[in-house]
Amino acid sequence: NEAQDTTKSFDEAKKPNVTINNPTTDYLEMHFTIENTGENGFGVSLTLTGLETSNFTVSYAKSYRANTTTAAQFGAAAGANALSDVYATAAGTSKCIVDVSVRISLKDINSDAKAEGNFSFVLDSLTEAPELFDISTKKFNTSNINKLLQKISGDSSVSAKDMTKINQLAQEKQTAEQLLANFQKIPASTASANSVSANSLQSEPIIELGGYSWIPVYLSTTNEGKDATHDVILTLWLADASELSGKAYDTDKTFSSSGGTTAWASGWCNTSLDVDYPSNMYGTSYMSAVVLNNGGEYAHCTANDSTDITLETFQQNPNSPFSLFTMEENGLRDFIVTPEFVSWQEDGQSSTGRRFENENWATSYTDKTGNDAWKNDYLWLPSVTESGGQQNTGGLQGTTDSSPRGLWKTLPQQRQNYYFWTRSAPQGNGAVVGAVGPLATYRTIQIKSNAYLYSVRPALHLNLTKIANSL
Predict the structure, then answer these.
(1) Which residue has the higher pLDDT, 399 or 345?
(2) Cys bridge to 453: 239, 261, 341, 424, which one at CB 3.0-4.6 A?
């Protein structure tokens, strides 16, 4: 019942600290409200003393009173009796208010014996969240960029002023597996875990950009033949599609409220490949133009298997959840590299044991107009090859191999526990695309009826060289 006003800054001397002596109840609860008036969100760390939480039940609840997205789950942090969470305000939101309730049972879950003693709730820290880009100034946060560079290199001496090591690693290429190992070399005390961190289980590094959580999956360079500067690019993959839940991407269409899923196509599809614009050709897909807000033309069928296929034009939507990344006026797009300048997306991809369309923009559907249009996209879906769909003895179905997979060498926890759409399309049928699950399980999905809803987890190439030069 003790309230503490820490609206403007967090005062260590006044941090909320409530002690309960020998409680007679079966549980304890703490409720606190935090108001954030900045653009970058905030992190919360709560410490519980006097109780070994590993032997007791801890539950929590959160409610939001403004447009707020959760950047990380509220759960165990460093130490057996600590909880932490990170909240990020949605792009363009000037304020958010979060109510948090923590309830702790005082009965041991093993013996049902009741705990005794004095117990304290301490709001241990309140820190600025890890957002890399300030949308109000249209500039990157120098401190957080330096921490990111330290993390991806595994070297606490690296900074934007000296990119030598970053350049070397990019030339060699670093996969998601290697980047995770590098992240873990830098302790939180050296490169703040509130800026770029691995989660509480150290299973994946998380980067905050544009109000969303991203996983760094590949460090490489732009195509030397097309970009004389040979810039370093860090490929980021949306960590959690549920951050899109309930958000509108078209006039009458939203991501589902449970998991941020949606259909791949706009409606009807044609199985035939003997048409001008195959329904699963990613360059003229509804997914590329509308869902991801890249804009441009997309193919539309008036009915299933109809030969009446037209090109519709979509103007970018400033209210799209992806507008910060795809629209020029927001500033961030200037630091994103399109696949046109990435050699490993131009050609060379081929999933083990099977050939897919759309994996390479230069060598897929080469007899069709618009086949390579996605090379100009700022956000794009990963391919089966990139994300890790693999063949086993039973074909590209049902593999249970949990090892790092794909060009990016993604880990199962990075592929999440739900299937996500890819841009890859199996050859021979214009109405199917590929989806990949946590254990690299690959599925061929019919997109004719829009009956199948899967997660949308786009990726982008962040130009680290250009960012460093801008600081």
Answers:
(1) 345
(2) 261
Cα 110 → chain centroid? 37
Instruction: Give the tens place of pLDDT for each residue, 82-139.
Output: 444 444 444 444 455 555 566 666 665 555 666 555 555 555 444 444 689 988 888 9
Question: By C-alpha distance, which of 46, 52, 200, 51 is closest to 124?
Answer: 46
- pTM for this model (two decimals): 0.73
Taking the C-alpha atoms of residue 202 and residue 255, their distance in angstroms, rounded to an integer, is 29
* Residue 189, both tokens: 């005390």
Token pair recorded at residue 136: 């109000």
CB distance 217 to 236 below 8 Å: yes
Strands 205-209 and 212-221: antiparallel
Pairing mode, strands 253-254 and 17-21:
unpaired
Q: In this structure, how many other beta carbons lie within 10 angstroms of the beta carbon of residue 206?
A: 20
CB proximity list for 25: less than 8 A, separation 6 or greater: 106
Q: What span, in angstroms and rounded, lies between the C-alpha atoms of 276 and 48?
A: 63
- Say which DSSP state 405 is in: B
Q: Which of 73, 364, 390 is nearest to 240 (CA)?
A: 73
* Token code pair at residue 466: 């250009």
Task: List the structure tokens of 196.
Answer: 């770029």
Are 456 and 241 within 8 A, CB to CB?
yes
Write down the pLDDT at residue 28. 65
Interatomic CA distance for residues 280 and 240, integer angstroms: 24
* DSSP type of residue 291: I
Between CA 313 and CA 298 the distance in angstroms is 6
Kindly report, residue by residue over 217-271, the tens digit of the pLDDT: 999 999 866 655 689 999 999 988 888 988 999 988 999 887 789 988 887 788 8
> Residue 123 corresponds to which tokens in the numbers above?
């709001």
First to last CA, the chain: 45
Do the beta carbons of residue 124 and residue 45 sit within 8 Å? yes
Instruction: Write the DSSP string, 441-456.
Output: -EEEEE-SSS---EE-
